[in-house]
Amino acid sequence: MAAEAAVTRLTLGQSATSAMTTTTMSRRLRCPPPAAATSASPVTVSLADLPHKRSSATATTNSPVVVEKTDAATLASAWREVQGGGDWTGMVNPLHPLLRDELVRYGELVAACYRAFDLDPSSKRYLNCKLGKNHILPPTAGAGYTVTKYIYAAPDICVNAKSRWIGYVAVTSSADAVRRLGRRDILVSFRGTVTRSEWAANFMSALSPARFDPSDPRSDVRVESGFLSLYTSDDVKYSKFTCGSCRNQLLSEVTRLVSEYSRGGDDVSVTLAGHSMGSSLAMLLGYDLAELGLNRDAAGRAVPVTVFSFAGPRVGNVEFRRRCDELGVKVLRVANARDPVTRMPGVVLNEDTAARVCGRAATWWSKAWCYAHVGVEVALDFFVASDVACVHDIDAYIDHLLSIKCDPATSREDEADADDVASIKVTREGEDGGAAVAAEEVESWRWQMLAIRAGELLQALGI
User: Fold this and answer.
1) N or C: which end of the chain has fewer CB within 10 A?
2) Cβ contacts of residue 290 below 8 Å, gap of 6+?
3) Where does it reside (predicted)?
4) Using 50, 70 and 90 to split pLDDT, how confident is the model at 156?
5) Average pLDDT of the chain?
6) Which is catalytic among the residues 46, 197, 276, 279?
7) Which pTM does this prediction carry?
C-alpha cells in the first residue's frame, strides 16, 4: 500500500522555510543521451540596460532599471531583465514564463552534475566526473554551450581530504546560441552535497571573515566557515590532479573567458547556478568576482553577474548581503517552503532574529553574527509524504517549476483563489497502511529538526 500527498500550492514572493534533509542521489534521468539542440520559445517582455559603475574602491551603486514591455520580444531582447537587471520586478509574482523557462534550463544544467558524478568506490573515476566534456550537458538545456573546464574542491576539515569533482565551466560557443540568448553566456554549474566531508563542511556554521580582496579585507563581511573552506582550500599534497583551490580554478577560468569573448564585441554575462551547497559556492564566486573587480570586459564595462540558487542555504551575515547588493551581484533563490536546508545555517540567529531583537536600529551584533539570505526569492511549496527527501531534490524543484502556470496576466488574487481549492491532494490505497508509514517518517523528521535547532543554539551561545 502507498500514501502520497502532494502540495500543489505555489507561493511567489518572500517566504519562510524550515527543516533539514539529505540530498538524494537516486535522481531520475531527466534527459536522454545528448542529441540535437532545440531553440527557446519567444516570450513577451523587454528591458533597458543595467548601468554598472564602479568606484576606485571597487564598490558599485545600483541604479534603477526602467523596464519597457513590448508586444513582441524574445530572450535575446530581454536577457538583462531575466538576469536580474531590474531585480526581477514584475517577473516573480506572478512568475513570468520567460523567467520560469530560464530557471528550468539552468536547473537542468545543475542536475547534469549529479548524473555525471561517479560515486562507485571501485571505479577509477571515483569522486570524479565519469563523462567527458562533450557528453555532460543535457541536449536541450545545454544546446550551444561548450564545457571549457572541470572544477574540483576539497574541504579542509579532515586529514587526507582529496579533491573531488564539484562542477564545470561552460560558455555559449555557437552563433545560434548567442543569437538566441542575446549575449555570450559564461556558465558555472555546481552540484550539491554528496560526500561525508562535504556534509561536515555544511555543519561548520561559524562565521568567518571572507577577506577576498587583499587591499581591502573587509573583516565585517563574514561567511559560513565550511563553505569558505571548500571554496578556498588547496589539496596539493593529496590531489590526483593538483589543480589548486576551487577559488583559483574558477577565478582564472572565468576571467579568461570574459577577456576572450568580450573582445569580439558581444555582450557577455556570467551566470552562476548551483543546488544546495553548490549554490553557496556560486554565491561566494559571484561576490569574489565583483569584489575584486574581475567582472569587466575588454572595454572596461561591468559584466552582469547573476546567481541562480536552487535549495540554497544562507551563506553569510547581514554585511555580506549588504555588500553583494552594493556590488550589484544579482541573486534569485528558488526555495521550497518545506525544504529545511533553506533555513540553514542561522536557524536561531538570522535576519528575522535581528529584526525582532534590534528593530530597525541594526547593531554591530546583528550585522556581524546574524545570517541573512541574499537576493530575491521564488518560493515553491511541495511535499510528498512517501518521499520526504524530495523536498530538497533538484529534480523535484525542476518538476514543480514546470508545473507552474505562467500567465503574465494572472493576478495574485487569482492565484490565491486557486490555492484555496484542493491545495493538498491525497491519494490513498486501502485503509491506513501507507499513510501510517508516511506519518512515521514525518514524525521522525520533526525530531531531527529539534536536534538540529538545539545544536545550533548551543553553537551560537559558544557552549
Assistant:
1) C
2) 58, 60, 305, 324, 327, 328, 329
3) Plastid, Chloroplast
4) low
5) 76
6) 276
7) 0.74
When pLDDT is averaged across residues 48-54 and rounded to a whole number, the result is 36
Secondary structure of the chain in the HEC alphabet?
A: CCEEEEECCECCCCCCCCCCCCCCCCCCCCCCCCCCCCCCCCCCCCCCCCCCCECCCCCECCCCCCCCCCCCCCHHHHHHHHCCCCCCCCCCCCCCHHHHHHHHHHHHHHHHHHHHECCCCCCCCCCCECCCCCCCCCCCCCCCEEEEEEEEECCCCCCCCCCEEEEEEEEECCHHHHHHHCCEEEEEEECCCCCHHHHHHHCCCCEEECCCCCCCCCCCCEEEHHHHHHHHCCCCCCCCCCCCCHHHHHHHHHHHHHHHHHCCCCCEEEEEEEECHHHHHHHHHHHHHHHCCCCECCCCCECCEEEEEECCCCCEEHHHHHHHHHHCCEEEEEEECCCHHHHCCCCCCEHHHHHHHHCCCCCHHHHHHCEECCCEEEEECCCECCCHHHHHCHHHHHHHHHCCCCCCCCCHHHHHHHHHCCCEEEEECCCCHHHHHHHHHHHHHHHHHHHHHHHHHHHHCCC
Of 52, 96, 373, 392, which one is the catalytic site residue? 392
Please state, in angstroms and rounded to a whole number, the distance separating the CA atoms of residues 188 and 174. Answer: 18
Starting at the earlier edge strand, list the strands of the sheet with 371-372: 207-209, 222-224, 316-317, 371-372
Question: What average pLDDT does the segment 398-402 reach?
Answer: 96
Whose CA is closest to 109, among 84, 140, 75?
140
Per-residue pLDDT tens over the stretch 283-293: 999 999 999 99
Dig out the grid coordinates for 127 from the structure: 569522486
pLDDT value at position 161? 64
Backbone φ and ψ for 277, nearest 5 degrees, come out as -60, -35
Q: Is residue 343 within 8 Å of 351, Cβ to Cβ?
A: no
Q: Which residue has the cell 511535499?
A: 383
- Amino acid in the structure at residue 246: C
Residue 275 known to be catalytic: no
Given 339, 381, 393, 395, which residue is catalytic?
A: 339
CATH of region 3-460: 3.40.50.1820
Q: What is the mean pLDDT of residues 95-107?
A: 97
**Whole-angstrom Cα distance, residue 94 to residue 84?**
16
How many other β-carbons are positioned within 10 Å of the β-carbon of residue 95?
23
276 is catalytic: yes
pLDDT digits (tens, 9 = 90+) for 325-374: 999 999 999 999 999 999 989 888 887 776 666 655 556 666 778 899 99
- Alpha-carbon distance of 250 to 400, in angstroms, equals 31
Please tell me the predicted confidence (pLDDT) of residue 36: 38
